[in-house]
Automatic annotation (TrEMBL):
Domain Integrase zinc-binding: 161-214
Organism encoding this protein: Austropuccinia psidii MF-1
Keyword list, A-Z: Endonuclease, Hydrolase, Nuclease, Nucleotidyltransferase, RNA-directed DNA polymerase, Transferase
Matches recorded under PANTHER family: PROTEIN CBG26694, PROTEIN NYNRIN-LIKE
Membrane-spanning segments: none
Coiled-coil parts of chain: none
Gene Ontology molecular function: any one: nucleic acid binding
UniProt-recorded name of the protein: Integrase catalytic domain-containing protein
Pfam families the UniProt entry points to: Integrase_H2C2 (PF17921), RT_RNaseH (PF17917)
Domain Reverse transcriptase RNase H-like residues, every copy: 4-62
Length: 314
């Protein structure tokens, strides 16, 4: 017999021909922990279910897997309590559809396969566009929003939406990780027309998120337009190629590359990767500037301190 105090593991699988689910549990057999099935179910896909996506197939697997455990509704499966996703939750979702005009109309249109244009036009523009694109599907009284690779439950109740946001951001197994990760979690389990905007606002108003994910550095500045040169060697690019094998009499291990923006002429100067700004300035003065003249604009990915020191040294 299964031990009702030990968590269960639920395995589900589905394909175009059939689906199956197995409820496993680790039990002590012959003084050794052994994982084995408590119950398993398998069946063929019905013709009307052939159009369902991966998420809907998963829902088909979940419902019958809970039946053998209805007598023990507090059993945790993979750390998620059955009562958290029980029939009461889906009943609350169905009831919320009756209070929302768009969802109520959608439920009628999808359930009756109705083509009444007056009802379709009664939908808000966002809902009407998604309905025209055949994004909505009805299964067991629940509206699913379907995209190319996923299918999520449609929510309209403010209480349920806030609950979903709380579960995807505040729970210990998500832990206020970041705005992007919360968006990814919500995207995979719930949908409403403004889900992205509401998720971002929720993260921005979350005190712990703002403290934990606050950027420590300065914000990046705006991009600046680079004035096109009118003659050679007015504007040059400078960069270093490092991690080279030592070579030459002075064991050079880097190369300073200077490129004229006007003519795209390159100059390659052997150097050392630990050269200072003064060393670089002397190298440029003796090998480049003495032939080309002073540059009007010098661009590099080095720090501003390095570039300023280089200009002052030159």
């Amino acid at each position: 017999m299964p031990d009702w105090n030990i968590p269960f593991k639920l395995y589900i699988d589905a394909c175009g021909d059939g689906l199956g689910e197995a409820v496993n549990q680790v039990q002590i057999i012959d003084d050794k922990p052994t994982e084995g099935p408590v119950c398993y179910i398998s069946r063929q896909i019905e013709p009307k279910e052939a159009i369902y996506g991966a998420s809907q197939m998963g829902c088909l697997c979940l419902n019958p897997a809970y039946v053998p455990l209805e007598a023990k509704p507090q059993i945790p499966i993979e750390g998620i309590n059955i009562t958290d996703i029980g029939t009461e939750f889906f009943e609350e979702v169905r009831e919320s559809y009756k209070k929302d005009e768009n969802c109520h109309i959608l439920t009628y249109l999808l359930d009756k396969d109705c083509k009444d244009t007056s009802l379709v036009n009664a939908l808000d523009e966002v809902w009407r566009n998604f309905y025209s694109a055949e994004r909505f599907h009805l299964f067991d009284g629940i509206i699913y929003h379907r995209t190319k690779n996923s299918c999520e439950i449609t929510f309209c109740s403010r209480f349920i939406i806030n609950t979903i946001l709380h579960e995807c951001n505040d729970k210990i197994y998500f832990g206020h990780l970041s705005e992007d990760r919360t968006l990814e979690k919500v995207k995979n389990c719930a949908w409403c027309p403004s889900w992205r905007k509401e998720t971002i606002e929720y993260c921005h108003t979350c005190d712990r998120c703002q403290k934990a994910n606050r950027s420590k550095g300065k914000k990046f500045g705006l991009m600046m337009h680079i004035q096109e040169p009118r003659s050679p060697w007015e504007v040059v690019h400078m960069d270093w190629v490092t991690a080279l094998p030592p070579s030459g009499d002075k064991s050079y291990n880097a190369c300073l590359v200077i490129v004229d923006r006007y003519s795209e002429t390159p100059i390659f100067l052997p150097c050392h990767k630990d050269d200072t700004a003064m060393d670089t300035a002397l190298l440029q003065w003796s090998r480049v500037i003495s032939h080309t003249g002073l540059f009007k604009n010098l661009m590099s990915d080095r720090s501003q301190v390095h570039i300023c020191t280089l200009h002052q040294s030159s």
